[in-house]
Design a protein that fits this description.
Blueprint lengths: L1 E9 L2 E13 L2 E5 L4 E5 L3 E8 L4 E7 L8 E5 L2 H10 L4 E3 L2
Amino acid sequence: MSEHRGGGQFGKVQNSWPFVTLTIDEGGISMKTMLQEVGLRRGSIQAIILQKHFLNHRFIFKHNDPAVKERIEFWTFSPDPVANALRSQGYPVLQNG
């Protein structure tokens, strides 16, 4: 299990750095702020896409869980530790720009 601090988006709600904690383990991922939390089970994660943006990198979690809002993103200035943690738990991370 590993934890990472950053920003993120759950549905239409955006939270800037460092107010989001991403937790990664073999059973799934979770992202939480002081007011909300969202989790995805491993089986519902279809793809994890790493995109470089102007100021940060974003991990976009594509999933098929109908109970979770569609747009799930984690933002960080240091993508390598997050990508390595995801890969070490067996999650494929695709780079897109």
